[in-house]
Specification:
Blueprint lengths: L4 H8 L5 H12 L2 E2 L1 H7 L22 H6 L3 E6 L4 E7 L8 E5 L7 E5 L2 E7 L17 H4 L2 E2 L4 E7 L16 H10 L10 H13 L8 E6 L11 H15 L5 E5 L5 H10 L3 E2 L2 E4 L2 H7 L1 H7 L6 H14 L12 E4 L14
Parallel strand pairs: 1-4, 8-9, 9-10, 10-11, 12-13
Antiparallel strand pairs: 2-3, 2-6, 4-5, 5-6, 7-8
Length: about 350
Amino acid sequence: MKPEDFLILKETYCDIPFEAIIKTDLLRLGISFSNEALEACKAAKPKSYFIFSFDRTAQKDLSQLEKKSAPEEIALIGGPFDFKRTIVSVRVNPESPYRITVGAIHELPLQLFFHDEKICDILLPSFPDYYAQPLANGKPVSDITPTIEWGYLIYITAFRLCQYFGAEEECAFCDINHNYRQQKAEGRSYTGIKSLDEVIEALQIIEKHDPQKLSHAYTVTGGSITSQLGGMNEAQFYAQYAQAIEAKFPGRWIGKAVVQGLPDDEIKILKDSGYQIYHPNYEVWDEKIFNHVCPGKTRYVGQKNGSAAFWLEPKFSALKKSFLILLPASRWPNLLASRISKLRFDLRKRV
C-alpha cells in the first residue's frame, strides 16, 4: 500500500472508522520503532508475551532494545485524521512500513508514520507499580499475572504449552509452543505451568498496588489438554484457578475462561468453579486446509471424518446446550477462520 492510498481507503470504506482500518493493518504488518522511540518506551509497560509472541519476527532477530523496551500496547490518538483514542496490541516488526518515532510535542513525544505519512500521535501505557514488586520466589508479576488492555484485564496463561506438540501436532496458525521455547532461550522468566500459590500471590500484589482498581477482569487460559495434566482434564485443570481466586478474592474481578469448545458437563465444571464467562475457540476451515493447518486436531477429534464440519458439529451442539448452564451473554465464542486463495496456499506447506 502506498501512502497516498490512505485517503482512498478512508473514502472507500467511509462507514468503517478509520482507526479500525489502521488498527487492523498494524496487527497484520506489525510496527517498527526508531531507537529514540524505544528509549522513550523504556518507562512504559513492556511486552509480557502473555501467551503468544504476536511479533512478526523471531526474538533472535530483534535487538536488545526491541526485546526489552517495546511496549505491551499503544494508544492511537489525534493527528491529521483526528483519531479517537484506540488501543492496539504491539506486534514488533523491524521491517514494517508503520514506524513509531519521536515527535516534536513534549506531551505526545511519539508519533506513528506510514512511510513518510504521519498517521497520528501515540500514547504509552504507564509502568504499573505492581510490576516493580517481585514474588517471594523472585519471579516478576509480569510473568505470572500480566495485565493488558491498559490494565483492565489480568491475563493468566496457566499452561504456557499445548499438548498438540511438535510439527505433526501443532496448529500452523498458533505459536504457543514455539513462543515458550524462544522466550526460555532468551532467558526470560517464563513459567510453563503456574502454580495456584504463585497466581494468588501475584494477584495479592496487584490488589495492594492497584489502589484505583484499574483491573476489572481476569482471563485464565492456556494450551489444549488432550488427555490429562496433573491428573485433571482440561475443564478441571482450568477450573482450579477460578476456585482459588474466588475463594481468596470473592467478586473482586470478572472471571473468564478461554479454552477449547467443551461438552456441557465440562462447561458446568467451569461455571461451578466461579467463571462468569466461557470463551471457546472454534476453528473453521475448508476440509483439506483444516487437515493441513490443524493436523493434531484432525487426528484427535476428526479421526472418523477428518473434516472441520465433523469437528465443529458437536461443539456447536454443546454451545447451544450450554445456554442452559451459562446465559448467552456469558458465552463469547471466537471463530478462527480465514479466506485463503488457492493460488497462494500450497497444501504441501504448513503456513
